[in-house]
Every structure is written in C-alpha cells, then in structure tokens.
C-alpha cells in the first residue's frame, strides 16, 4: 500500500547551529577571544550552503535511531475501535524505531541508499493502524539530545535547544515485500545495530509479542531548520541533492559525502 505524500501535517521538531568546518574543528563554534557578538559571528561562523546543510541532514538521518512519525486518525473512527470518536481527523505524533538501512536491501529493492529511512512497523501500533486506514505520513528527526555536548552559539548566552538541528521528511509509506532468509538477515543486522532490543519483535520472530513488518518512508520533500536564521539555512531542501548524497562521496554538489561533516557536539565514534 502506498500513501500519498503528506500535505497538511508538519511534525515540529529541532534547530541546528553548526558551521560546516573541517573534521576536528566542527565542534569549535565559539571564539573565546571575541569581545563582541558581532566579532564572534564574523569570525566563528560560515553560513553553510544548502548542499552542506543537506550533508548535515543526511548525516543526522544516518545517526538517528528513532523519530516522531505523524499520522492522522481516520474520520470517522471505525465503530469497532476503542479510539475516542472526538479525535477523528486529528493528527498524532509518536516516536518510532527507524534506521538508515536502504543499502542493506537487495539489488532491485534498494533505492540506492538515497535517504529513505527503514521502519520496523508493528501492526498493533496506532501509527501504523492510521497509515493502514489511509493516513499520510511525516517523520521528524532532531539533534536535541546532544545539547550538553554542543558549544553555545553566542558567547555569554546559555545553551539553547533551538540552536540544534531538525528536519521533517515528507513522503509515502512503502511496505517491503517478503525477503529471502539471506536478505532478511542483512536487513536485520543493519537495523539491530541501532535497536538490539528489537530482536524480540522482528518480522517472523518466534514468540514475538506483536506481528510486525518492514517498510520505508520514500522521501519526496524535506523541510530543514538548520538553526538560528542568522547563521544557518531554513527552508525546503533540494530533494535531488538529498537523494544523491552518499556516505563517502556524492553524485551531487561538490562530491562530498555525509562523512565529511560533523553535527554540533557530535562525539568521536
């Protein structure tokens, strides 16, 4: 089942404050020797280009293990449902497990590692029941949990979550077909690196508490808030750039991959 791209929902989520500096310098966002905000901004920041922002966004997807998926309750609510009739047609955002595992899919099924997140869907979950009833879908990712590791954007001011990145991905929900044992093992290996606990409810797992299936969000639009607007990009990304970026090199922009940038406060892996 394919669901049309979301047009009426925008799942809100988190801002970025990072200049795209060489690896090893990325976390140094303040200039202790500056005596004024003007000097600090002039010396410490280089506004990322939109391509550099896309690199940061693809890196955030690669490092994210969950995100908030927004859907809409059916209208009317089915009579057999325990959902209150008063929420019919209203949006709900719930955090779900995701991983950047498209490259683990077999040839002919993979879209070439072009930024379509893999989702482990539980049939009983509200998110996927809404999608099954025809809801559109968006996915919000953010970097807010790294606030304490990031350097404040402006000297003398406190840390601000609004200075860390967020992106909302729009697209359609694409359930994956049944996989061979070999292909399923490759996808499971990738997904379980981020979610070892999910071994208990993988598709077909013996004794699983709930039925599940593999799916992906096929991205058709991406809305990026790179951080405070005086030093970062905010707006709609070029989807061709989003889809053309790879880990080590890309077919778009200046050819860099998402390994060539670092997010604010990111620790060495």
UniProtKB/TrEMBL annotation:
The keyword Glycoprotein does not apply. SUPFAM superfamilies: FMN-binding split barrel (SSF50475). The keyword Endoplasmic reticulum does not apply. This is CREG-like beta-barrel domain-containing protein. Keywords: Signal. It comes from Penicillium cosmopolitanum. Residues 52-241 form the CREG-like beta-barrel domain. Pfam families: CREG_beta-barrel. Residues 1-18 form the signal peptide. InterPro entries: CREG_beta-barrel, Split_barrel_FMN-bd.
């Amino acid at each position: 089942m394919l669901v049309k791209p979301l047009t009426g929902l925008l799942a809100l989520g988190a801002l970025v404050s990072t200049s795209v500096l060489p690896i090893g310098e990325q976390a140094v966002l303040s200039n202790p020797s500056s005596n004024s905000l003007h000097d600090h901004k002039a010396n410490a920041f280089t506004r990322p280009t939109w391509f550099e922002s896309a690199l940061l966004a693809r890196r955030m997807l690669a490092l994210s293990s969950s995100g908030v998926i927004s859907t809409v309750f059916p209208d009317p609510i089915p009579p057999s449902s325990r959902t209150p009739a008063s929420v019919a047609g209203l949006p709900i955002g719930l955090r779900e497990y995701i991983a950047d595992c498209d490259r683990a899919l077999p040839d002919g099924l993979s879209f070439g590692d072009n930024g379509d997140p893999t989702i482990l869907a539980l049939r009983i979950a509200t998110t996927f029941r809404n999608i099954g009833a025809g809801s559109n879908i968006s996915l919000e990712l953010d970097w807010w949990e790294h606030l304490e590791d990031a350097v404040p954007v402006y000297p003398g001011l406190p840390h601000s979550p609004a200075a860390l990145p967020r992106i909302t991905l729009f697209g359609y929900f694409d359930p994956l077909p049944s996989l061979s044992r070999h292909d399923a093992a490759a996808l499971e290996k990738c997904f379980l690196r981020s979610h070892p606990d999910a071994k208990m409810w993988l598709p077909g797992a013996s004794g699983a508490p709930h039925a599940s299936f593999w799916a992906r969000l096929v991205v058709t639009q991406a809305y990026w808030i790179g951080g405070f607007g005086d030093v970062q990009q905010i707006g709609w990304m070029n989807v061709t750039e989003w889809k053309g970026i790879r880990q080590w090199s890309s077919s778009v922009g200046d050819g860099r991959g998402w390994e060539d940038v670092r997010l604010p406060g990111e620790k060495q892996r």
